[in-house]
Each structure stands twice: as structure tokens, then as C-alpha cells.
Design a protein that fits this description.
- Belongs to the class-III pyridine nucleotide-disulfide oxidoreductase family.
- With 570 residues, the chain is α/β, with parallel strands linked by helices.
- 27% of the residues lie in helices and 25% in strands.
- A five-stranded parallel sheet has the order 3-2-1-7-18. A five-stranded parallel sheet has the order 9-16-10-11-12, with helices on one face. A five-stranded antiparallel sheet has the order 21-22-25-24-23, sandwiched between helices.
């Protein structure tokens, strides 16, 4: 029997669910309701429209074959009735109706449904500080906000910009402002690293340094206290605890909150964070109401705990599942591992699963393994550096997450996607050693970086290898005069001599190939810190030293490559 499906929210999930359902039940009726003027647009593309990489706003709302996804598109090609500028005021679950109001006219109507979908999305957090209503202070909410920002910059009205928040949107907006528009930009983040919560501290330092080299200024551990103006109209400054920054444009990117007021008023189950609660079929506590996208909590497949992940990729996948289930299907959305990627100028960052700190917070006895190496064959002309950090459970070797940085973004995302596919099955890190990967010199090394990562993890789990990361090395180097440390550079003399000459008391050079014959040059009462370019020669040196009964030995994971990328000064 034909149904009437009402979907509240017509961006990613809502439009996908509508189209999928109509393909399964062409004779049924679908009404898509949204309070905005624009529907089915790519919110993730907004920073690229601001930067100018996406030339026209309509491209964010167009299909791959350049058709505009407007009300007429959905009516003609999908058979879906779309009500724009229409707000859902209340849900009557008993009678299965929705009270709607057309915003331009104020006219209200009662719309009956057989099944209802909540795709109400999220709203950016606004800081509770003075001056948020000043012109020039923006959140990234929709194409309209992007249009205002881009118009202001293109009009020559922005000489200095401040971005509040160093998460995905904050980083993308900082790049958009500084790269193509050449606007001096400062990022303020109240936590102690960029991309907090999704990447480890060492990789964050590497990414931050690369962005600083491109002209971005970072103020970490800082908070905006007020936005100030000279004319009571336009923003002119951002005031913090200890300093004030001039700013003609301020982007507030401190996260989003789920739009769940409608669900809460209707008596549906909502979490403490305000997200709608759904089961594996994306059904709410009312069997006739589904929900998905930015307004719901999801199950994390590694912690089995609810997690809030407002991502367009997830919303599209969930839309198809809801469309199936509206038509009587039993499609499941089991959960997420939290996969992501972001472009930071010419550097790519990506990850999946848990960070080391996230794993510890979840109760895992975890450690991380770092590898830095070229992502192609070393002899191939076009190649770039890739740095990966694998998070594993110490006792079992179970893989818990992978994060990385790379010059070649496609290569990095490929590695992350491999691990993302493996994580739900609780794989052991050792399996990476023998994982079959496609190989050709223009695409990868013969021993893929994931294979190397597995080898290092295997050596650590078997207690054959003891490594330290860039931050550990930095702390040791800072306190070198107060500890019995012997820094041993295992590279060839030409590579190591400038460091040995600069710090003859602490920095010593014995090439790895000569070490077995020069053991008498190694003090027995010092802790040995081995270093080379990427860590491979240091590991060979560690084997030699352990065999000679030197037991207090550690290697710098990623070697000088990792230290240089992280900005550690020697």
C-alpha cells in the first residue's frame, strides 16, 4: 500500500533518504521539508567555495552531471515534493502529524505521515562572549554564510583574520583565507594542539609546523574573551586573557550541536549531549520515526559507546539505509570507527579509530607506533614523505586506530581506508606485516609503509624494539645536561657531522655498519638514544647493542625525519 513519508531536513541525509525510498516505492508520496532556501548542498565544500577553489556557489548544489538539486530537480527527476522555507513546529506522534509553518507567509498547516524522518542536522556553537553579533563575526553554517565571507574578502575589506578553533572546519577555513586570498590569519585554540581529539600530539606538531611555514599563526591554550569594535558595528579586535589581536574577520569554528529540540518536544529519547537516540536500523524510540545525520548519536565500533560524528559521508550512507527501511527493509548501520581526512595546504592529514589518548581514555592499555618514510619507491622521481602513527593494545596487539600525514594525500587516504576496513574485526597489528598491497614504483614502495608499520609493531610487542617519539626526544634533549644520556647518530659521517660538531659532548656518531667493531666507544653506564633518518638503521644498531648486552637502549621512531617535521630543534 502506498505511504506518505515526511522528511524534515533536506540537505545530505534527507535528500538521500527521499531519493532512495522513491526508487523502492515509486507509487508512494514523499514530502521533503526544510526551513532554508537551499537544499541538497555539500556543506563540506563550503571552505573550498570561500577559498575560491570552487568557483560558483551552485556547484555545491549540483550533481556530477551539473544539474542543480533544487525543488524542481527533486520534483521532476525524483518524484519528491519539496517545501523550502518551511519550519516544522511540532510532531503529534499519536495522530502521526507534523505542524508546519511557511516562514515567508506565516501560514501553518497540519501534514499527516505514515512514517517520519528527522534529518534536522546541527547548529554551530557560538561563543558566549561579548561582540558575537558584530558584523564580520561568522560561523560556517550554510552557503549563505560562505557567500557573505567570500564577498567581504573579495571586496578588499579583510586585512587580518582570526579563526577560533583548530578542528576540521577551523583548519580548512584558515587555509582558505591564507592560501588563495593571502589574508594574514591567526588560529586560536584553547587546547594544547591542533586537530584535538582526532590526531596524536606528535603528528599535530608536524602539521602545525607545516602550516606555520605557510604563514598561519597559532595561539594554543588560549581563549577569546570578547570581540571588540571601533564603530559598534564591525569587528576590529579579538580580546584574549593576555593580548588583543586586530581582526576584520572572525570565523568561529568551535564545533556544532545536534538540532534535537523537535525530537525532545515530541518525547523521543535524546542523549545528554542532545543527540537523538537511534537503534541499528536508525529508528528512534518511536517505531514510525527514523533519524540520522548530524542530529543523532552513533555507536563507536571500538569502544561500544555512543559517539557524535557530524560528517557528510556518514549522513549519505545513513540516508540510503533509512530509505531501505522506510520501504520495509532491514538494513543496518552497525556503527563507526571515525574515519576522516583534511587538506592543510599541500599536506594531507587523515585517520581512523582511536588516538593514543582516546584509547587510554576508553580504558585500553595502549601504545603507539610511529613510522616515517617515502610513500613511493625511493628511486622514483615523484615521491613524498608519509608519517603514520598506529595505536595498538599493548597486551593483545589489537589495532585501535591509525592517524597520519603525507605530501601525497591520495596515498595517505588509501592507507587509512585499509585500516578502517580492518578495525571492526579487531585485527592484530602483526597482520600488517604480511598484508598484501598493490605495488608499482609510481604508487608505493615494494615493502609498503603499512607492512613496515606492522614489522615495527611486531618488534615492539615482542620486546625486540623500544622506541620513543619526537616529544619524548625533545624532553630528553632539553634535560641532556642533567641526565646520563648518550645520543648516538647511526647515520654516515656526512649526514651526522654537523650535529656532532655542534654538540660534541652529547651527540656522537658511529655509522651503523661500523658499530659492531666500535663497541668499546660506547659507555656502559649511560642510557643510549639511537637516531638515524627514519629509524631503520637505528633499529639495526639496537640489535647489535642488545646482543652486546647494552640493555638501556631506545630508538627515535621516525628518526630525524620525524624530529624535523615536528620542529624539534637539535
Amino acid at each position: 500500500m502506498p505511504q506518505h513519508i515526511v522528511i524534515i531536513g533536506a540537505v545530505a541525509l534527507g535528500s538521500k533518504a527521499a531519493a532512495r525510498f522513491k526508487r523502492l516505492e515509486p507509487d508512494s508520496r514523499v514530502t521533503l521539508v526544510d526551513r532554508g532556501k537551499l537544499i541538497a548542498y555539500s556543506g563540506c565544500g563550503i571552505p573550498y567555495y570561500v577559498s575560491g577553489e570552487v568557483n560558483e556557489e551552485r556547484e555545491l548544489q549540483s550533481t556530477a552531471f551539473h544539474m542543480l538539486r533544487d525543488t524542481e530537480f527533486f520534483r521532476k527527476t525524483k518524484g519528491v515534493d519539496v517545501r523550502i522555507e518551511t519550519e516544522a513546529l511540532a510532531i503529534d506522534r499519536k495522530n502521526r502529524t507534523v505542524n508546519l509553518r511557511h516562514l515567508p507567509t506565516g501560514n501553518e498547516e497540519i501534514l499527516a505521515y505514515d512514517q517520519l524522518v528527522l534529518a534536522t542536522g546541527s547548529t554551530p556553537f557560538q561563543l558566549r562572549v561579548p561582540g558575537t553579533a558584530l558584523q564580520g563575526v561568522h560561523t560556517i553554517q550554510d552557503p549563505e554564510s560562505a557567500r557573505q565571507i567570500r564577498s567581504r574578502i573579495a571586496g578588499g575589506k579583510v586585512k587580518r583574520a582570526v579563526v577560533i578553533g583548530a578542528g576540521f572546519i577551523g583548519m580548512e577555513m584558515a587555509v582558505a583565507l591564507a592560501d588563495l586570498w593571502d589574508v594574514p590569519t591567526t588560529v586560536i585554540e584553547y587546547r594544547d594542539q591542533i586537530l584535538p581529539g582526532v590526531i596524536g600530539n606528535n603528528l599535530a606538531r608536524m602539521a602545525q609546523r607545516r602550516m606555520e611555514q605557510k604563514g598561519i599563526t597559532f595561539l594554543l591554550g588560549e581563549q577569546a574573551k570578547a570581540f571588540e569594535s571601533d564603530d559598534q558595528t564591525h569587528v576590529a579586535r579579538v580580546a584574549m586573557e593576555t593580548t588583543t589581536l586586530p581582526a576584520d574577520l572572525v570565523i568561529v569554528a568551535v564545533g556544532v550541536r545536534p538540532n534535537s529540540a523537535l525530537a525532545r518536544q515530541a518525547g523521543l529519547e535524546v542523549s545528554e549531549r542532545g543527540a537523538v537516540q537511534v537503534d541499528e536500523y536508525l529508528r528512534t524510540s518511536d517505531p514510525h520515526i527514523f533519524a540520522g545525520g548530524d542530529c543523532v548519536d552513533l555507536r563507536h565500533l571500538l569502544t561500544d559507546m555512543p559517539v557524535y560524528l557530524p560528517m557528510g559521508s556518514l549522513a549519505n550512507r545513513q540516508g540510503r539505509i533509512i530509505g531501505d527501511n522506510l520501504a520495509g527493509g532491514r538494513s543496518k548501520f552497525s556503527g563507526v570507527t571515525g574515519s576522516w581526512c583534511v587538506k592543510l595546504f599541500d599536506l594531507a592529514a587523515a585517520g581512523t579509530g582511536l588516538t593514543l589518548q582516546g584509547a587510554k581514555n576508553a580504558g585500553f592499555n595502549a601504545l603507539s607506533v610511529h613510522v616515517s618514510q617515502l610513500d613511493r619507491a625511493h628511486f622514483f622521481p615523484e615521491k613524498g614523505l608519509m608519517s603514520l602513527e598506529l595505536v595498538i593494545e599493548r597486551d593483545t596487539g589489537r589495532m585501535l586506530g591509525l592517524q597520519g600525514l603525507a605530501d601525497m594525500g591520495d596515498a595517505l587516504v588509501g592507507k587509512v581506508n585499509v585500516v578502517a576496513a580492518l578495525l571492526p574485526s579487531a585485527p592484530n597489528a602483526r597482520m600488517l606485516s604480511s598484508l598484501e598491497m598493490a605495488y608499482s614504483p609510481p604508487f608505493s614502495a615494494a615493502l609498503d609503509i603499512l607492512n613496515v608499520l606492522g614489522n615495527v609493531a611486531d618488534n615492539i610487542l615482542a620486546n625486540r624494539y623500544r622506541g620513543i617519539h619526537a616529544d619524548d626526544f625533545a624532553a630528553m634533549w632539553k634535560e641532556r645536561e642533567h641526565n646520563d644520556l648518550f645520543f648516538l647518530d647511526c647515520r654516515e659521517t656526512l649526514e651526522a657531522e654537523k650535529y656532532a660538531h655542534a654538540h660534541p659532548e652529547f651527540w656522537h656518531n658511529i655509522p651503523q655498519g661500523e658499530l659492531a667493531e666500535r663497541l668499546k666507544d660506547i659507555p656502559e653506564n649511560h642510557r643510549l638514544v639511537l637516531i638515524c633518518n627514519t629509524g631503520a638503521r637505528a633499529y639495526e644498531a639496537l640489535v647489535t647493542l642488545n646482543n652486546a648486552n647494552f640493555n638501556d637502549v631506545v630508538c627515535v621512531e621516525g628518526g630525524m625525519t620525524a624530529l624535523t617535521a615536528a620542529g624539534v630543534q637539535v
